[in-house]
Fold Formate dehydrogenase beta subunit.
Amino acid sequence: MTQVAYGVWDGVVHDRQAGQATLEPRNFDEFDEGNPIRAFFGDRGFFVFDESVSLVDALYHYMRKAAEQSCGVCTPCRMGTVLVRDALDAMRRGLDAPLDLDQIAMLGEQMRETSLCGLGQTCAVALLDALGHFRGRIEAELAPKRPIRAQHGMAYMTAPCIEACPSKVNVPRYIDYIRDGKPENSLGVLLQKYPMAATCGRVCVRYCEQACRRKFVDEAVGIKTLKRFVADQQSGPNALEFTRDMIRKPLDPAMRVAVVGAGPAGISCAYHLLLRGYHVDVFDKASQAGGMAQIGIPAYRLPKDTLALETEIIADLGGRFLFGQQLGRDFSINDLFARGYRAVFLGLGCQAGSRLGVAGEDEARAGYFSGIDFLLRVHDHVAGKVPLSLSGEVLVVGGGNVAMDCVRSAIRLGAGRVHVLYRRTRADMPADPGEIADAEAEGVTFHTLCNPVRVLTQAGRVTGVVVAQMEQSEPDDSGRRKVRPIPGSEVTLPCDTLIAAIGQQVEDGSRIEADGIALDRWRCVAADDALTTSRPGVFAGGDCVTGPSTLIWAMADGLKAARNIDDWIQRGSVRFYKRARMRKLIADNDFLANDVVETPVRNAYRVHNPELDPELRKRMFEEVEQTISARAAYAEAQRCMRCYRVYTVLTGHPIPEGAV
């Protein structure tokens, strides 16, 4: 590890010369290949690795970024950042500054103590630490009254919610636009990252809200609720129209890319490639776009017309959907390259259900479904293709979102009683807590710390399940408890329908391997950090790489793949991306700590989407949640504390340009 020469972090002084060097941040040897990191400045202090670093120049660049990003609402941040920036700029140029070091320190204290948002409260921390503990170094720099040599590096602004989002959506910015009464601008922030804003506003699992600092005051900001509000405003006469004319630099018609899979990853990849000017064809074995979002998310959570409007953006931008086309059956990777496609993206998803792997399962021919197969039947029923009804006792094994979709759908299909069986505790369930609460409100019974050990059948029809009670072990080194069956605890639960919602797998892995695409030990497509596969020119992302995940992760992979495909076609290799490198530095060192909010905020609990009454909604597949009003959206947007943080890094050499 690289050792700090001097600095202050979280109020602790580190000085190697004084024998106080204890800080050894991780992953700080180089920023990019052959480019050493000389210093790092952030919201909790700074540290310097190279004694020759100019603190004056470094602090100027930090405050310049803060001044650029100040929202201007409060005077301390709006004026303080500019005054300090200009004073430091004059000092680094060897000119007489309008403020001396004492006055700069006074302004820094005012910003820290009286600013109204996280940016203003933290942007002077490194400045004050440098002046308070290493002022002699600053004065020595200024003594010659000569210009200070400019240093290489970059500045990066983020927030806890941004870093938690797989797509790195600038959440505070789109909330700011809602607060300013400009929902169309807010939608623009979302569309920079993915085209499925209304879909995501309904089914996102809200990583951003888990990171929201507002939770230390009362409740996290309803980021997902606001996203849906913004997306739903753009309908009817207000709808944003997508056309090929939106593409600034259309490429030659020979610049064609094939996207295999019209799920969230494929749609996102196609969207970003189209905006880059490529000509994109999307192949899918189904008859409509959406992938697992189409067949795996019931209509009461995601109306299919909403999904259809957003997937149609691909055709509006000039892309083509080629439905009824399955990889390995109707075409191969070799075929695609032979047709002239410059690159291929695999967004195949995980549409094969996993089996329980217990005795008696093979004999179950009626009344037994995998979670995915059941949801596909539900989709076809709601679409009017194949009717489906249930009765009696229904048991669903699993604790994820697919399991919650299964139990809530089973209720709507007429089941007498619906039960969830989960091998761990309620707190361990990976499903969205809101989905669990909604299922319970609709009458689902939860059985935790129990696991099926045998499926009972009669003439091939499921009649029940033998279940063993489980107990938790002591925590292991990671703090996680395992579970094990309690000997002699087996009981029989009768049922008419059994649904195994315990996981999903990539379909037709052998066909993919036959095309020269390596799989990993979980039988997922093997792809590196750049989403490149074992075959040059073939990229992959979403569930077929990660295993069953979330819509937002799939769309994030689509964006990343599009960017890297563009690099591969235009440059022959994938570029280094400096913002991704900064995010890794921040994540590896937990710089965005879950600290308490600095400035008292008046309690104001979050706005929730209006919902249909549980007794009404469990009898139909119409959408349960409704969009909030403009008044409610404005009130919710006011709760955002704009927890922006600025980070800057100094490097030995210039960071590659064009790497965003």
Q: What stands out?
A: Residues 6-159+644-651 form a domain with the de novo design (two linked rop proteins) fold (CATH 1.20.1440.230).
